[in-house]
Amino acid sequence: MSKWEIGVYTSNHIPTVNYDENNELSIHMEYDHLEQRYFYFDAKCLNYITPEDKPENIVPIIEGIAIIANGAIVLITKNVKKALEIDWNQIFYDEKKISIYKIDFQPSINPFSIITKSQTRISLHNPKGIASLVNFARKYDEIREILFMIGTFVDMPNINKNISTWTTLYAITDTIFYYMSDKYKAKEFDSQKGKKKVKDKTLEMIGENEVEYERFARTANNFDYLGIYARHGRQDFQPPKNPMTLEEGFNFVFKMVDKFFHYGATRNFLEVL
Fold first, then answer.
1. CB of 28 within 8 A of CB of 19?
2. How far is CA 271 from its chain centroid?
3. Structure pTM?
4. Cβ(10)–Cβ(85) below 8 Å
5. Residue 245: partners with Cβ closer than 8 Å, 6 or more residues away
6. Same domain, yes or no, for 78 and 162?
7. By three-state DSSP, how is residue 88 classified?
8. What is the pLDDT of residue 273?
9. Quick check: is 138 in a domain?
10. How many angstroms separate the Cα of 194 from the Cα of each of 110, 111, 190, 200?
């Protein structure tokens, strides 16, 4: 992989991803002399940064790949607590512990952009799972963007992240509608005009329930029901008779992502879930 090992905190046993030269990501577990368990991750895209680079060139790449990996872990496990939280005191380069001046840089939504095309060998024929999702995220924008958004749900201890949750869930569905109408450009969309028709046709094509989508959307948009957590401020939106809980919102959107990835798999890339 690379010379980097990025330590992570975890109070839950997270899935490991065995090293494979054809995979972008690996996650492994080690024990110290006191039998203390530590997790580390590594990624091929980290080959393109070194400790001599400026922090603003290092931190966004490490955080970006961690968020995408978290998105894959959450989508596979359906558990927002099973994920990677970087321990900035456990960063190693070439087997030597290093210090990185960590301040709040915006994570890179595409940490793979630093990879040169001459060195992009990864397998797109892997078994289903976390490694496969991250490999496909490197190649396909739609997978990368959705995994990044899902990865932001991890570890939500403060109000700011909670406020963004319903908005991000809705943004994931927006992204699905965009790629269905723009990238796949199926014949079914030729006569479809306007957002509502694109939405209706997308739901039909991926096999999602339109009634449940409307229940989700009306919940996410409604200030009377969600207050500051709503996607909109006070407007003339009526809440559904049976609004979704946040857990139901997660489950609905993750299921919709699964269906979208499977739809894309039959037309553009191999099955990844």
1. yes
2. 17
3. 0.86
4. yes
5. none
6. no
7. strand
8. 42
9. no
10. 30, 33, 11, 10
